[in-house]
Structure to design on (351 residues):
């Protein structure tokens, strides 16, 4: 893919991040490793390595492998509020020593974590689920706001729809706003760009790809599911703060809850291993999802999925997925925009 392939998709965010199309790979912990990040980068998107609570040694290995595969820019995703402070400091130290150019943060805004990497000259993308969090992230120095809607797979911070949240944020900030949640095809990208956002972030769409580090069982379940097969629950909460809800595919664990999907206290949940990665146990109510290396009762684990899963019917190379999204969006925007300056006119409110 070259910039000339999809000229109407280019936004100022592409120049800021150094990508060809404004499609970001979400920093999915365990899943978005170097192979997937490299594939998205080489196809023209912007990748994020999901390094939540990972040891600095693994972060170093992943960053070095990514750089060996591509010279395109990337970000590293960390979650300060859900990481032991000593580990977080070690993670940031490692990334800065490696010259990581950008950080993607999520959950509660931790100003010192933003300030530290900004002082080193790094970009900060901050995913938020509420208007208050967006204000806090901007005040702390974030360069890009990612508006995560309730449709998103994985950990969901707010309870507002993605496009409604993005609309509210654009009304009060001059920062680039990226839409995240339920976007898995070109229709979502076209809608986001038509309303004036800077781009989109996709997780579920890239989880179901060849290069994703997710287990094949998880990928196949995604390809067979639709939006109604997902549920929002906080029962998969071990390793995270109380009340941290996730969107997953319904399974035997969520079915057993009946209507009590929310309101679970991690202190009262049993620590029962259901699967393993080598010698590391994966607990029934933990936030761990099944990876390539996982064995055991995969069905009982957190099978993260956003409401865009119904738009995913196959498992393909990440580059193919990205190009499908871009090509469909390009075609749709070509139908709704006037030939002369339609993209920029729409982006600037018709002025």
């Amino acid at each position: 893919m070259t910039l000339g392939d999809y000229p109407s998709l280019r936004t100022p965010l592409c120049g800021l991040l150094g990508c060809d199309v404004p499609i970001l790979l979400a920093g999915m912990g365990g899943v978005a490793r170097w192979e997937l990040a490299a594939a998205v980068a080489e196809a023209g998107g912007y990748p994020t390595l999901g390094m939540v609570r990972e040891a600095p040694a693994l972060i170093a290995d992943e960053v070095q492998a990514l750089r060996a595969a591509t010279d395109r820019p990337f970000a590293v995703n960390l979650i300060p509020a859900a990481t032991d402070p000593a580990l977080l400091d070690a993670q940031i130290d490692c990334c800065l020593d490696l010259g990581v150019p950008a950080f993607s943060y999520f959950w509660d805004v931790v100003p010192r974590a933003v300030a530290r990497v900004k002082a080193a000259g790094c970009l900060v993308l901050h995913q938020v689920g509420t208007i208050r969090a967006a204000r806090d992230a901007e005040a702390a120095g974030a360069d890009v706001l990612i508006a995560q809607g309730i449709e998103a797979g994985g950990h969901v911070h707010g309870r507002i729809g993605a496009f409604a949240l993005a609309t509210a944020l654009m009304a009060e900030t001059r920062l680039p706003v990226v839409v995240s949640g339920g976007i898995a095809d070109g229709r979502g990208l076209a809608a986001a760009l038509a309303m004036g956002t800077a781009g989109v972030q996709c997780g579920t769409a890239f989880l179901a790809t060849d290069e994703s580090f997710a287990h094949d069982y998880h990928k196949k379940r995604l390809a067979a599911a639709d939006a109604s097969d997902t549920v929002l629950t906080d029962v998969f909460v071990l390793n995270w703060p109380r009340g941290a809800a996730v969107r997953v595919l319904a399974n035997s664990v969520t079915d057993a809850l009946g209507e009590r999907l929310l309101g679970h206290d991690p202190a009262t949940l049993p620590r029962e291993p259901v699967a393993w990665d080598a010698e590391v146990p994966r607990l029934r109510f933990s936030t761990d999802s099944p990876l390539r290396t996982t064995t055991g009762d995969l069905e009982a684990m957190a099978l993260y999925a956003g409401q865009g899963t119904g738009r995913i019917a196959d498992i393909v190379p990440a580059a193919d997925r990205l190009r499908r999204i871009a090509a469909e969006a390009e075609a749709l925007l070509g139908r709704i925009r006037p030939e002369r300056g339609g993209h920029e006119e729409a982006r600037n409110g018709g002025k």
In short: Residues 226-304 form one domain. The first helix runs from residue 12 to 17. Residues 340-351 have pLDDT under 50 and may be disordered.
